[in-house]
Every structure is written in C-alpha cells, then in structure tokens.
Amino acid sequence: MTIPELADRVKSRDRHAIARAITTIENDDQSTGRLLRELASKLGHAYRIGITGPPGAGKSTLTSELTKLLRSNGKTVGIIAVDPTSPFTGGALLGDRIRMQEVSMDEGVYVRSMATRGSLGGLSAKAKDAADILDAAGFDYILFETVGVGQSELDIAKAADTTVVVLVPESGDAVQAMKSGLMEIADFFVVNKSDREGADQAVRALTTILSFRVTHAEDEWIPAVIKTTASKNEGIENMLREIDKHREYLETTGKLALRRKARERERVHELIEDMLRIDFWTPAKSALLETELDRVAHHEKTSFDLAHELISDIKRQVA
Amino acid sequence: MTIPELADRVKSRDRHAIARAITTIENDDQSTGRLLRELASKLGHAYRIGITGPPGAGKSTLTSELTKLLRSNGKTVGIIAVDPTSPFTGGALLGDRIRMQEVSMDEGVYVRSMATRGSLGGLSAKAKDAADILDAAGFDYILFETVGVGQSELDIAKAADTTVVVLVPESGDAVQAMKSGLMEIADFFVVNKSDREGADQAVRALTTILSFRVTHAEDEWIPAVIKTTASKNEGIENMLREIDKHREYLETTGKLALRRKARERERVHELIEDMLRIDFWTPAKSALLETELDRVAHHEKTSFDLAHELISDIKRQVA
C-alpha cells in the first residue's frame, strides 16, 4: 500500500489502516513525515485529554469508564496508553489489557498501547504522532493514559488539551504530586478510589495547596478537585463535566489555539533533536567513541573532552 | 577563583568549593568541561549507589540511615538527591530537608539537592557531573536518591555501580515496579516499611517474579529481596551487606569496569545531544520557527515539514 492510500484509509477510519499507520510512525521515520503530511488537512477535530498520575491511581479504569460515558453520548474515542515495557510482560499487564478489551471491542473506540522501548527521547513525539493519526481518522476524543512521574511522561500528558491528574486518597499522595511536578500540569484533579478512607481530607489538602497558587489574571483557570470511584463508575459524569468546562474556558479565551501551537513547537524541537542525533552518529563516529572511551575510563581524558573532539571532528568535515 | 584553584579546593574536600563547583556545573556549560578535566585524575575512588523507587517508598529515610551506618564504619558519604521541583516549594519538601539536615551536619557527609528545573535532558548528565565532583573530593560512597518512575530518572539510577530499588509492602507495588521498568535496573530490592502488613507476601511476590527472569550465564547476578524498616533503623546492615556483595561480584567478574565504561558512553551521548541542540537553535532559527508555526497550527504544513526545513537550512549554510 502506498502512503497516500494508507492515509486515505486512515481518514475513513479503517482499523487495520490505523494500526498499520501507527506501526509505521513507531518504526519508520522516513514514512512518518509523508504520512502525516497526507493527513494534515484532517487534523484539529479531536479533543485531546491527558490522564496521568502516579502508578496505582487507577488511570486505566478511569480511562475505560470515561470512554464508556463518551460512547453513550455518541462520541468516538481513541486511546493511547503509554505503558513502560517490561521484558517479563512484553508490554501492558494482563489485567489492564482485559479492562481495555472491554471498551476496545466497540467499533467507536480504538485502543493503542505504546511502549517505552528503546530510545525514549522519541516516545513523546511518537505518542503525539499517533494522536494525529487518530485525529485524522475522525475520533472525537483522544485520551492519553500515561504514568505521571518522570519528565518524558509529563511531556506526553502536557501534549493534551486538557490534562487530568489522578490521585488516590492515601495521605501523602498530594505531597508526592507536588514533588513530582504533577501540580503544575493539572487542569483539574481527580481523587479516585474515593470510597476509601481519607478521600475528603485528600480533597481538602489539595484544595488548600491549590489556594496558595498565585493567580496572575482575572480570567485564570483554577483547577478543581473532584472525587471518583472509577471501579464503581462513580463520579465519571462529574469528570466529563469538568473536562467540558475546561474546554469551553480554553475556547472562549483563545487559549486552546495557543496550547496547540505550543504542542507543535515542542514537537518540532523533538523532531530536530532526533534528526540531529541520527545525522551525527555515523558508524565512523560510533567507532571513534568506542576507541576513545577506554581513555575516559582510565581518566586520561573526560567525557567532555571526548564529546568536544567528536563534535569538532564534524565541524572540520563540513568546513 | 580560577578553575584550577576551585579544582584544588574540591580535591581537598573544601565544602564551599564543592558547593560552588556543583553550582558551576548546574549553570555554566563552558566551565564544566574545564573543571572536570582538572578533576579527572582523582576520579574512580567513590563507589556509587543508586537508591530509587516509587514516590512514598521512604527513599530519603533509607538514604539517611544508610549514610549513618557508613559513617559509623568510618566511610565518608556524598548524597545527590534529585528532587523534582515545584514552584510551591522551590525544591525539596521541608520534611525531607530536616531529615537530610540530621546527616548533613556531619563533616564526613555532603548533601546536594538537584532539581529538575528547566531542561531535564540535562539533569541526568548534571547529576553524573556532580557525582564526579564528589568523587574527586574523595568521598568513599556517593548515594543518588531519585524517584524511580520515568525514563530520565531511571537513567540517573542506572548511572550507579549498584542500583537499589525500594518498594513498600502494599500489594501492587511489585506489579507497578514491573510496569515502570524498575525490575530491569535493580541489582537488588528493598521492601521498606516492612513492619507493615503484607511485607512477607511482597517479598515472596518479588522473589517469584524474579525467578521467571531468564539467567543467561552461570556467573549471572540474581537480585536478592531484603526487608528494611528505615524509620526504625531495621535491616540497614543487611542492605549494606548486599551492597558489598554486589560490589565484590562486579569487581571479581570485571563487570564494574564495563558498567563504568557504559556510564561514560551514555554521558558522551548526552553531552553531544546538548551541544548539538545549543549549536542548532540560533536566534535566527528560533525566530523562523515562530513564524512558520502558525502555518503548522493552521494545518498548512506539518511539524515534520517544518523540522526538515529548519535542518536543511543549516545544511545549506555550511555547504
């Protein structure tokens, strides 16, 4: 199948074509640019929601339940689950897979797991590319589910129009969220598993912390804190209402366009870094690195010296 | 103070000089290379231990207790705590700071917090540079304390000679560890807070998971699982015994040298990426990016097209 043919089938939401297109962007940097160019005119329809939080917060269940609710409203949903890979499992764990399968049997839903295999530098970029494919395929909503600790993972969450940070009632979770940078990216908070003890205290703690946040402008968005128990399908309507409210805020203030532009800026930066790295590491350069590394290991030179030598070697060649 | 003077004072373990040297590597890329070159001959003495795990596992307390034990054995200890920054706190949380202060009043201990401020790409490299400074200052042990979720954070943990993954007894923690890539980097596991219910089950679960790991060679290291209750100073001797055992294993098999070489290789890669990025983004290029981003936002071109244009512009200039 040619790239334009593949793009056409993606646009008509052919599931096999979507799968193939995402595999293409995962593996083939050459075709990715051409494929996305073919799809560009169809972009911008989908609303992108990032669902993030610490491990064990129940993000998968929440994602599944939100998907069911959106479906019952007649909306189509694409899900990108960024699951760190383990050699023990080869990707997502069985429990999550089963939960995901429930929703993914539905024709109006497309679920794709992406793993942090190999160079993670690229994962954030590739997750956004995959979202573009689902956007061009006409899905109304795209949900990114990603663990919310670690910079690359936060970058994925930030690539959404609305970012939801999921926590659990256990004391200390709010404090850990502050430490791990989740506070800054949350458009609102969900305290999930709120049938557990301490849910109300957790909400109060978060609300208090948020009240310390300096508001710079009158029209500034103030993140809400809502409670859910995803496993019992409780609070999901509330969550969707908050998403809609945030979306309306972004649209009326013109901030949606700014946010999407920032996302593209970030993506260009990522692409440039990938390209520079690939261009740089020729077989000759990699070989030189290996030879000289022994001298670094013996403290005869530093890794800085070696990096400078490798860089200036390139500069000499083009000069 | 000149760079050679600063280096001399670092080598004599002058605390102010160490602080200044780390601030230098955090802020000044030009001086870093020169500083580390002056220190190169003194490198290789310190044994580097990564202490990592999910938020809330008690890594700080464990680090403090291990430090006290090492001190009672007459060893000096440098600690690098990689704390994600929050604008609410401006760095580490008060509780951790107080705990750290307890050990940092000791002349044989040096504690440095490093934040994930700004470009995290550089943090992993900078944490290793800071470790080199502490190594050159003659500390016997360097402990990296870092949250073990997220790729950049795992990279820091991997930069150690021995990597300890800290979990808590709560069910699901082992499963989450599998998902987040912690299993692969652990030289051994600590189930901390093991006075809580479920500690023995957690140890059994981890041991079972580990038994599925395919062993490739006869001399392959098999990670142990040990219990601690750092807050009550229980199990710390056991933990140190396991560190010593792993160190001996690495030394007798020659794997310590390989591991350290791999660390330098990774660092050269990181440095090259930083240099390429800095070289690339001239003011003119950044301005061009901003102009053209609007066309990407309007779906007239893709971020791929724009990235290629920016790259080929560079190639034209040097051609």
Structure description:
- The structure is a homodimer of 319-residue chains.
- The first copy, chain A, has 319 residues and is α/β, with parallel strands linked by helices.
- Helices cover 56% and strands 13% of the residues of chain A.
- Chain A is built from 14 helices and 7 strands.
- In chain A, α2 crosses α3 (29-39).
- Chain A is globular and about 60 Å long.
- Chain A starts with a helix and ends with a helix.
- Chains A and B meet through α3, α7, α8, α12 and α13 of A and α3, α7, α8, α12 and α13 of B.
Helix percent of chain A reads 55-70%
What is the residue-mean pLDDT of chain A, rounded to a whole number?
A: 84
Molecular shape of chain A: globular
Structural class, from helix and strand content of chain A? Answer: alpha/beta
* Main beta-sheet annotation of chain A: 7 strands, parallel
Largest chain interface and its two residue counts? A-B, 76 and 76 residues
Cα separation of the termini of chain A: 42 Å
Name given to the CATH homologous superfamily of the largest domain in chain A: P-loop containing nucleotide triphosphate hydrolases
Calculate Rg of chain A over CA atoms: 22 Å
Q: What is the strand tally of chain A?
A: 7
Strand order of the largest sheet of chain A: 3-2-4-1-5-6-7
Count up the helices of chain A. Answer: 14
* CATH architecture assignment of the largest domain in chain A: 3-Layer(aba) Sandwich
- Which ranges of chain A are low-confidence, i.e. pLDDT below 50, for 5 or more consecutive residues? 85-92
What are the salient characteristics of this protein?
3 domains; homodimer; alpha/beta; 7 strands; Rossmann fold; globular; 319 residues; seven-stranded parallel beta sheet
